[in-house]
């Protein structure tokens, strides 16, 4: 991940290139800078004290991807962040997710809890039947190794849907 240096000039976001010249930032560069900023704000040990904070964090991490990305927040017993991990990348409307790999990572990190998340590039945050089935399979697999599934958040641009808030978990 490259470090970007930004400056504001006449309401335009500028980025400095390798030669030190400023030029208009692309959308992808702006999104990458936002991801870097949220990463600095929520580093290992940061507490997720509210669903709103979790959703803001995930919106900043996942909004703007043009393909599905399935992520997991691995948390300790006090719901502090151990690690944010982009586990699986897919196409514009699906991603293959393997419960075995999520369980392995939870055990490797000694996580006590997880928050699952993925984006819907379509802009519709409503969970599909496949999303519901997958969430249940992941929850069951993680429960076998005593890792709690706290939520599954779907991000679609600025909108989010929380399985926990909608009684789907």
From TrEMBL:
UniProt xrefs under InterPro entries: MPN, RadC_JAB, UPF0758, UPF0758_CS
One function term, GO molecular function aspect: metal ion binding
Occurrences of domain MPN (ranges): 46-169
TM stretches of this protein: none
Pfam families named among the record's database cross-references: RadC
Keywords, alphabetical: Hydrolase, Metal-binding, Metalloprotease, Protease, Zinc
Protein name from the UniProt record: DNA repair protein RadC
Originating organism: Diaphorobacter aerolatus
């Amino acid at each position: 991940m490259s470090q970007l240096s930004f400056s504001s000039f006449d309401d335009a976001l500028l980025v400095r290139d390798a030669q030190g010249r400023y030029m208009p930032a692309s959308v992808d560069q702006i999104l990458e800078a936002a991801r870097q900023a949220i990463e600095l704000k929520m580093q290992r040990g940061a507490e997720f004290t509210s669903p709103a904070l979790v959703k803001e964090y995930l919106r900043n991490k996942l909004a703007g991807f043009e393909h599905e990305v399935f992520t997991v927040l691995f948390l300790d017993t006090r719901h502090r962040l151990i690690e944010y991990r982009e586990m699986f990348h897919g196409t514009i409307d699906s991603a293959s997710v393997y419960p075995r790999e999520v369980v392995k990572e939870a055990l490797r990190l000694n996580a006590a809890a997880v928050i699952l998340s993925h984006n819907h590039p379509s802009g519709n945050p409503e969970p599909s039947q496949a999303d519901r089935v997958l969430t249940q399979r992941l929850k069951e697999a993680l429960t076998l190794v005593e890792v709690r599934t706290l939520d599954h958040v779907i991000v679609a641009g600025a909108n989010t849907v929380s399985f926990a808030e909608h009684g789907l978990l």
